[in-house]
Amino acid sequence: MATGIVSLAVEQMAMPRLARAMFVINILAYAILWVLNILRAIRYPRAFFADLIDHLRGPGFFTFVAATSVLGSQVVFLTGSDRVAFALWFFAVALWLVLIYAIFTALTVKEEKPTLEKGLSGAWLLAVVATQSIAVLAAILATRVGQPHRVELNFLALSMWLWGGMLYIWMMSLIFYRYTFFPFSPGDLSPPYWINMGAMAISTLAGSRLIMNTGDAPFLASILPFLKGFTVFYWATGTWWIPMLVILGIWRHVYRRYPLVYDPLYWGAVFPLGMYAVSTHTMIDALGLDFDTGFDFLMPLPDIFTWVALAAWSLAFAALLRVLARRLRRG
User: Fold this and answer.
1) What is the pTM of this model?
2) How many C-beta atoms surround the C-beta of residue 246 within 10 A?
3) How many other CB atoms are found less than 10 A from the CB of residue 316?
4) Listed residue (9, 4, 23, 2) closest to 279, CA to CA
5) Measured between alpha carbons, how far is 76 from 74 in angstroms, rounded to an integer?
6) What is the pLDDT of residues 74-105, one digit of tens each?
7) Which pLDDT tens digit goes with each residue over 274-302?
8) How many helices (H) does the chain have, and how many strands (E)?
9) What's the sign of the alpha-carbon dihedral 285, 290, 295, 301?
10) CB 210 within 8 A of CB 226
11) Phi, psi of 37 (to 5 degrees)
């Protein structure tokens, strides 16, 4: 997810070589992670399925869906291979259908459940990210097929966009309640809380793609003011979260001196930064807030956040290589 979206962000900044290099890294990482997870499911099925229905670890499985959809977007923009992109999209939809109902059914009917402050984290919003990732790729692919499939894909993208928004409202209400009415330690503020912003950023991206597609789907044109209003609503909400998350990060690592060491969860902070850059750039195009119209006040934001996301990705990748090197030396 993180590598894919940062690759698309640098592609927007006209750095195709870097974008393609990250694309290659992403393909390798995607394949390796699938192989490792399949091997774990075969060798340790009880542990694997226990994680699937766990309140804290279960939502992490939605990264399968989001990563597949982001890879599909990379395939479209970096290779132009529609067939591969469609195959990835269908695979993402199948994964979403299985996971969304399996996980939430299990969390609903299981007898032993944790309390709210022990069982809820920002990782729950990965369900929103997965849903919106399917909407984004569907809206992109809709422009590359003829009618009536173009209208059908746009309608599905709209439905997923709306469902993802409703899911965010449900979950964020609980997360905000957990923030403000339960004790909060530095260890509780794990990097996936950045998905508070990332879920809104990808919702902005999906809405912007739908706005761009209004010429091909009359039903989208009929609700264009609604699309524009909610897209800006999502972007504004995501933007509000950025200073708040920075402040909480300073509180965690500076004031409370929580150690800053590599954790795979930090990739959950890289993805929102890259997604904010891509979604802001796309929203500017969709709403006509660019140099050509004279409304260029948002133009610096995508470039700034692309560099921030690239720096965060580089630090996380370097830390990962360092950890792997240490383990190999010990090994």
Assistant:
1) 0.94
2) 11
3) 21
4) 9
5) 5
6) 999 999 899 999 999 999 999 999 999 999 99
7) 999 999 999 999 998 876 655 677 888 99
8) 13, 0
9) positive
10) no
11) -70, -40
